[in-house]
């Protein structure tokens, strides 16, 4: 296999797990691949820039049988991710190998039974200079983002960043800290999401459960609309000049926590696509465009779509080979971490190499590739420019199904409800694919049960004092007392009520306001939905009474036909209608600090 990056490391381990003898060819002097930052990069090798932070949280990007240490931050700086990769290689003894002394000079062929290509798709820069008239007369410096290391040298300069992917957004923010002005040029815009989700939790752990995926599948348009509204409540994409032409789930969004602050402060100005380059007011131009997805060392027959897309069955095996002896691992892109996908591909490929799994016929694989391509074209925008995109959970589950490691959700819910509920309702972490089948890991259940503890651990640098809380106990007491008062009042006044049902309803409705307020507040402490139900009951009672012809009779008996009382009755209806609406706002997250309104009488 080629390159000792994240995909290669898990491929080596998968080979060792199946009793194979892997040999890794690495062009540099260390492991880590893309995630090994070098101040002086090797020629022809892609490099990350100094301030890069991973977009996926540690729980989502970890390998399925190696949870990250609890002390690591949830979104790691690249040296911390490299330390995790080193720890993974050390723990599983992945590089207990010796180099042949004559390897550089022998020139001998070495024959292997199978090859796993793990170079990834960040290999070749893509600079479409012909799309920018006037570039040949540009007097400043221009280069691709893979050559960008830091903002050093940009002090006081005017910089143009072309492209608004994750690299473009990150480099624009990084450069804007020292540059005089940064212009961010985007052709189609982008949806921008934060690494931080609800409650300050990692964003990719919220809303990424199997249940969430099911709801999205059943109601795709509604979920898309809700996601876009949620993002626009954070900031209006149209106002900021970032509104894209595509819908949210049609393309992988930009993950960036700082871009909005740089735009609102004027340090970054969003501009449309460059039409022509004139003059010399700009000193630097950085192209942050997708890297070319090519593999020059592979037979050209494997490439389709003008060299931008590989014809691979399940994004792993070329259908045109006589024997399944070549697998491509990690040549894929998704909204989330690449490590779990590459690991699943490697586990599946080694099973095929050993003959434990068989591939379909060449014709069937070609048809599957066409079918998948058609599905992805309908699913994603600009697939011709980003041909490697897949949906994370569906792709993982389809691979796991063939491998026999897909979690049995129904069985887990029946036999181990604690684990089953976390698999259904919690984030789809990689450990779920070690619960059963080949490569089953005894620690998978514990890893799932403790994943939120590892998420919380890095935050515990300061523990504020916790006030004593008796909310649950006091809520139960108040609920019991208030319900008792309500029932006793109804019981002891039953003889004075009219035989009509409306009389009973009006008697309950006419209880002192404080009882209703305590009741509704008590329900709200237990669950907003309970308070909503009670408020709706109150409103329904009033509606029934106002529609009854005997209302004046009851008002004469109970309130001495007071005009003020009639006004109070109307005000009460308005009050509880508002309460009901407020409770609905609470349920849908629009009003987190609701306090009961007060009736204002004249």
TrEMBL record:
Stored Pfam families: FMO-like
Keywords: Endoplasmic reticulum, FAD, Flavoprotein, Membrane, Monooxygenase, NADP, Oxidoreductase, Transmembrane, Transmembrane helix
Subcellular location: Endoplasmic reticulum membrane
InterPro entries (UniProt xref): FAD/NAD-bd_sf, Flavin_mOase, Flavin_mOase-like, FMO-like
Assigned EC number: 1.-.-.-
Protein topology in the membrane: Single-pass membrane protein
Cleavable signal peptide: none
MF terms (GO), sorted A to Z: flavin adenine dinucleotide binding; N,N-dimethylaniline monooxygenase activity; NADP binding; trimethylamine monooxygenase activity
Family indicated by similarity: Belongs to the FMO family.
Role played: Broad spectrum monooxygenase that catalyzes the oxygenation of a wide variety of nitrogen- and sulfur-containing compounds including xenobiotics. Catalyzes the S-oxygenation of hypotaurine to produce taurine, an organic osmolyte involved in cell volume regulation as well as a variety of cytoprotective and developmental processes.
Name of this chain's protein: Flavin-containing monooxygenase
Organism name: Oncorhynchus mykiss
High-level lineage: Eukaryota, Metazoa, Chordata, Craniata, Vertebrata
